[in-house]
Structures are given as C-alpha cells and as structure tokens.
Amino acid sequence: MVLTVRDLAVTRGGLAILEGVSFELNAGEALVLRGPNGVGKTTLLRSIAGLQPPEIGTVTGAEDQIAYAAHSDGLKAMLSVTENLTFWASVFGLSDIEHAIEAFDLADLRNRMAGTLSAGQKRRLGLARLMVTGRPIWVLDEPTVSLDVASVALFADAVRGHLHNGGSALMATHIDLGLAEARVLDLTPFKAAPRTRQMDEAFL
Amino acid sequence: MRALLARDLMLAIRAGGGFGLGLAFFLIVTVLVPFGVGPQTDLLSRIAPGILWIGALLACLLSLDRILALDWEDGSLDLLATAPLPMEGIVSVKALAHWITTGLPLVLAAPVLGVLLSLPLPAYQWVVISLAVGTPALSVIGTFGAALTVGIKRGGLLMSLLVLPLYVPTLIFGAEVARRGAEGLTVQAPLLLLAGISFGVIALLPFASAAVLRINLR
C-alpha cells in the first residue's frame, strides 16, 4: 500500500475536529472523502500533505510522494499558462508539460496570461499542475469547484489515467465524479467529541 | 530552486511586479532631502552618507511585504511547501530574489544619486561598498519579518515594527563605513562588523524564517 493513515486526530484553530481516522490507500486506488461542511476534510488533507502536524496518529508513505491541490491553484496572474506549468514542472525536477496541457484541453490557452483566464479555466490549469509533478499520490481538496460538466469529465479521465499508471488519489468532493472504482469514506463518524485543548503551543 | 528564482525575477519585472518600487522611493528621498535641508552644501555633504543609507533601508522596507504575501494569497506557498524544495531553500531564494530586485538596484543607483546630495568624492566607493555588503542583510532580515507576518491580513505595519529594530545594527555600521570613508578615516572595523552581520544573518536567519513559515502555514 502507498499511504497508510493510522488513528489520526487533527485540530483546526486549536479545536479537535476529527479523531481516530484510519485508512489505507493502495496503488491504482482512489478514495473519496465525504462529510458535511466543517467536518474537517481540508484539515485532514493538509495534515496528510504534511502542511500541519497531526495531533495524534501517524501518516506513513506521504513523504515526498504527494501532489497537493487546494482551494487556490497557486497560479501567477502575470505568467502564461505554459510558464506556470513549466515552473511547477521544474520545481518537481521535470520538464514535460505537453501531456498535461493535452489532458486538460489547454492547448488553445497556452500563451494566455493566467490572470485573464476564467475561473473554470484557472481550475483546469491548477489541476493540470498535478500531472506535471510526477508524484504518485494526488491529494485533492474540492477539485471540481467551478468546473463545468465537460471539464469534470476531463478531470475524471485524468484521474482514471493516473490510477491506471499506478498512481493513487485521495480527494474531498461533494459531487459524483463518475469514478465507479473510487471508494468512499464518510468522515462524519470520526467527528471529535467537543473539548478544549491547551493553548500554550503557540507560545513555545 | 533556480526555477523559483527565475520565476520571482520574471514576476518582478512584469507589470505590477514592483521592480522599480524601492528604486523610485530611493530616488524620491534623495531628490527631496536637498530641498528640505536648503542650500547648505557642506551640511548636505556631511549628512549625505546617512541619508543614502536611510533611504536605502526604507526603500527595502517598502517592498518587504511582497516577498511572501503574494505567494501566500494565491496558494503557491502551500504548494511550494509540499514540493521537494526545503523550506530553508525557499526562503533563501526569496531573499535573494528580493535583493536582486531591490538591494542591487539601490547599490547601483547610490553613486548617481549621491551627486544630488553633494556626496564628498572619497565617500562614493565606500557608500557603494557598504550598501553592497549591507543590503543582503536587509533582504534576509526582511524575509524573516515577512515570514513572521505572512498569514496576517495587512501585516505590513506589524512587520515594519518587528523588522525596524533588527535593521538598526546594519544601519549603524553601514552608515558608519560611509561616514568614515567620506572623512578619509579608516573603515576597517565598521566594515568588518557590517560584513559580520550580513554573513551571520545569511547563515542563520533562513532557518528561523523556515521555522516560522512552517508554523504560519498550519
């Protein structure tokens, strides 16, 4: 298995929101996280991506394996589509961006500044970034926001291709991507019991 | 890391990148000071090294909040943090990009603008040398301040308050090198101390900046 999450507890703003989350993710597998707003999907994904340390529990197999995509796409408005993708590819030590441009139908937008793209086009560019990282585990937070039906289909194809090549995907989403093989994990049962935490951590 | 540096430099010179911001501010200060002081050439030439240093320092300060705040807003910082670059490397590259776009132009502009302040002839080389040695420290300390305040909306005021005291030693020794140079005295001691500050902060502060950035990204 590629990614193992054991008994994970995460906090947001000092409040425990999820506890006892455990799952495994294998190569070629997709896992969809569900749950109402505020249940802690984003926080859980940030913990797995290594952006915040988990309160308790362990995440194994995540180190240098994850391509993370959050609500904001990390695009520079004054760089063109090609420049944005080339930058991220070279940060991850790669150079080929053509397959990503093709997969997300960005060929016509290639030389446009990212700042002049529509919200959906930006999102497509942000998701195309995942393909140029060459990382095996995609951790996606609401990847389909502002995408139309056709783009969602493009995205589902990209995920399917990624899984087919032995990658895996972990995503928080509310809509049905048409990925029949994806497992679904509902986070509602893992909601932490309300309690306050010692707040001295910030001062250490 | 080279890609990050190239991207930051490219962004700086594109429209809205703020490349000329510090330089324009420096120009304004040095053009206005002679009007404020009045037609007293000897007074002006006595305070010129200090004015050039203060102008350079404030010009640096002006552009600090762009170092990390823009990347924070569009989410690039989160993505860079998950990229295979070490955080220490990211903040060092950011500081270097800031120095190239702000500090270096100030160093190059200082002798030209020194004419406006009737800078004494022997002082030119020492102003340039002291700025060349001192401005890297300003960029690195500024990156630390930017990392401290990165998540805060309009944290510019807080950052200025945090960074200004840290700038004081660099200013004292930098201006001292320029003043002693202008008076033809030996500059060795303040120049060595200035270089010591620069090398010290370049060696140590990236670790502190990376640590506070990791905490701020949580």
From TrEMBL, chain A:
GO molecular function: ATP binding; ATP hydrolysis activity; transmembrane transporter activity
Keywords for the protein's UniProt record, in alphabetical order: ATP-binding, Cytochrome c-type biogenesis, Membrane, Nucleotide-binding, Translocase, Transport
Domain called ABC transporter: residue spans: 3-202
Source organism superkingdom: Bacteria
Entries under Pfam families matching the protein: ABC_tran (PF00005)
Gene3D superfamilies named in the record: P-loop containing nucleotide triphosphate hydrolases
Gene Ontology BP annotations: cytochrome complex assembly
Name assigned to this protein: Heme ABC exporter ATP-binding protein CcmA
UniProt source species: Marivita cryptomonadis
Name of the gene encoding the protein in the UniProt record: ccmA
Automatic annotation (TrEMBL), chain B:
One Pfam family hit: CcmB
Function of the protein: Required for the export of heme to the periplasm for the biogenesis of c-type cytochromes.
Source organism superkingdom: Bacteria
GO molecular function list: heme transmembrane transporter activity
Annotated PANTHER family: CYTOCHROME C BIOGENESIS B-RELATED, HEME EXPORTER PROTEIN B
Family named by the database record: Belongs to the CcmB/CycW/HelB family.
Lineage of source species: Bacteria, Pseudomonadati, Pseudomonadota, Alphaproteobacteria, Rhodobacterales
Claim: Cell membrane is one of the keywords in the record: yes
Species of origin: Marivita cryptomonadis
Residues of the signal peptide: none
GO cellular component, one term: plasma membrane
Localization of this protein: Cell inner membrane
Annotated protein name in UniProt: Heme exporter protein B
GO biological process: cytochrome c biosynthetic process; cytochrome complex assembly
Keywords of the record: Cell inner membrane, Cell membrane, Cytochrome c-type biogenesis, Membrane, Transmembrane, Transmembrane helix, Transport
Topology versus the membrane: Multi-pass membrane protein
TM spans (from-to): 12-37, 43-64, 96-117, 123-150, 157-175, 187-213
